[in-house]
Amino acid sequence: MEEVETRISSLEDDAGSQQVIREALEKQLEDTQWKLTDLEDRLRRNNLRVLGIPEGIEGSDKHRFMVALFKEAFLDIQQWDWDREIQKAHWFPFNRAGLSSAGASDPILDAWCHWGIKNIGDMHRKSGCKSFMELQSQYGLPTTHFFKFLQVRNFFGCHKHDMPEMTRIPLVEAINRGEKIGMIYTLLVDLQSDDMVHQNERWSKRFGKAGDWMGQSLAMADTTLLSANLKTQHYKTLVDLYYTPVKLKKWGKSSGLCNRCGEKEAEILHMFYVCPMLRVLLCEIEVFLKKITGCNVQLSAMLVLLGVMDSTEGIEPPLYEIRLFLFVAMAIFRLCIATD
Q1: For a FRET experiment, which of 5, 45, 51, 178 has its CA 20 to 30 Å from that of 249?
Q2: Burial group, residue 232, by CB count within 10 angstroms (0-12, 13-18, 19+)
Q3: Residue 33 burial (CB < 10 Å; 0-12/13-18/19+)?
Q4: pLDDT 10s digit of each residue in the chain, 340 long?
Q5: Is there a contact between 139 and 70 (Cβ–Cβ < 8 Å)?
Q6: What is the pTM of this model?
Q7: Most distant CA pair in the chain: distance in Å?
């Protein structure tokens, strides 16, 4: 009888220890699953990162909040099934140095479907974007936030040897860490007067020469006879282009070695991506010049000859060459006026 009691006691002790081990393993499994999900979310190329939203304002349903936000921001695209387009919305618990400040809220990542068919460029071209002031009034966005505007950013791949030297995050450091490089562009921006001063300072440092870069750009946009609203949207999407290191998911099957550097980089697109409004500006300039001269002026062909733009379809000039593009357009415009 004593032996049976001893065995029962031993089994109970073993069962208790096994319970502790099982609970620990369940906790480890839960943590591992969370990490895998987080990594998957970060690497998904269909992610949009939305900055400037205070934590907690989205309530318990982040997906519903983001659907409502995009419906308000893009009023003219009601035919989209937003609930199906946005798969999932979640906080991105990581702020890179240089992209945030102390006390700034984490961004929200939105996973999208059918990205190749319906992209953020189409959304911008086809819709009337609400201003930050309107969104701020509706959602209570803070004016003192580090970014001072709501930014919707999309990641695009490009080869590391195509990157300019000037970047917010040291490019050499990013390459040494083995990170692939992506480009980010701002979609919704609210430029205040202090932002204009700050932007001129940034551009002066970037181009190595002081000047009213913002005023010049807006003046050039004026010459294309763009409406004030379109001109402002163009500049808002243009000024805040910059590069940052991001981790990208592999894109398609292997396509061999790069013909420029010999590296096997099939997962990185060999292209630059510039805001869609740049195409609108180019078309507006061509139409305006045709009205004056009576002949077709293909600025894109000129830019290829000048080496500003690659002739390969889909490759467009990066930010530091857009300034040259605008000056060329301005020079052509003045030449047409002088010969008229």
Answers
A1: 51
A2: middle
A3: exposed
A4: 777 778 777 777 777 778 888 888 888 888 887 776 666 655 554 556 665 566 666 677 777 777 776 665 554 445 555 555 666 676 655 444 433 444 445 556 656 554 333 334 444 444 444 444 554 565 555 444 323 333 333 333 334 444 333 233 333 343 344 433 332 222 222 333 344 455 556 545 544 555 554 444 433 333 222 233 333 333 333 333 332 233 333 333 444 455 555 544 333 332 223 334 444 555 665 666 566 556 555 554 444 444 434 333 333 344 444 444 555 555 555 554 444 4
A5: no
A6: 0.28
A7: 116
* Contact yes or no for 289/224 (Cβ under 8 A): no
- 251 and 266 Cβ atoms separated by less than 8 Å: yes
Question: Counting beta carbons within 10 angstroms of the beta carbon of residue 325, is it exposed (0 to 12), middle (13 to 18) or buried (19 or more)?
Answer: buried
Q: Looking at residue 41, what DSSP letter applies?
A: H
